[in-house]
Amino acid sequence: MPPSSTDAPTHEQSTHGVGPWPGGRDAWPADERYDPELLANGDTRNVVDRYRYWRIEAIVAELDAHRHPFHVAIENWQHDMNIGSIVRSANAFLAHTVHIVGRRRWNKRGAMVTDRYQHVVHHETIADLVAWAREERMPIIAVDNVPGSVLIETFELPERCVLLFGQEGPGLSAEAIEAADAIVEIAQFGSTRSINASAAAAIAMHAWIVQHSRWS
Containing H/E element for 39? Predict the structure, then answer.
């Protein structure tokens, strides 16, 4: 079986899934976390080896016990197609919750089913998100290359915070910029003005990981 640590990186052996549990029903583990249907038929889900054959509820409970204290928020005024990819990255970096601001509907294709394991909540407006963050005493760190921003590579990210991203194209709204406790941008060295929104989100989340995550 895979290593039990949820903190250290692992090399995945079963990228394309696994078949039925070896040895048949008599060899099944006596553990309620395991799903009998998956044990019988195999597990081809997009999960790391540690969670093969586990019930969805068991995986979520295990993730909840180890989630990082940063949150991710995305403005969704024009049905941004990047949100699914951002949710997938949030799951990979074990963000606490993804907050979608604006339109409730979003394209889940890019999430690759990771939304089943990632907490996702909705706020109608930026004001609603800000009210929640203030109640939780959680600073909002806007990520956008606008005047007044500082390089994320030189910025000390708070351990408890909300990383706030705008949608592809227009970036963050003026209201979001105004509400932010700090504004950071990602260092770029080429000719393009900006990078893809989901790529920017992944980079910012990893910046938090580098500063705060425990590797073992």
Answer: helix 36-41
**pLDDT at residue 7 tops 60:** no
What is the Cα gyration radius of the chain? Answer: 19
Lookup result for tokens 């939780």 = 136
Q: Is 201 exposed, middle or buried (0-12, 13-18, 19+ CB in 10 A)?
A: buried
Strand ranges (E), 58-204: 70-76, 98-102, 120-123, 140-143, 150-151, 161-165, 182-185
Q: How far apart are CA 161 and CA 208, in angstroms?
A: 10
Q: How far is CA 169 from CA 28, 196, 208, in A?
A: 51, 9, 24
pLDDT band at 5 (very low <50, low <70, confident <90, very high): very low
The position carrying tokens 């708070």 is 158
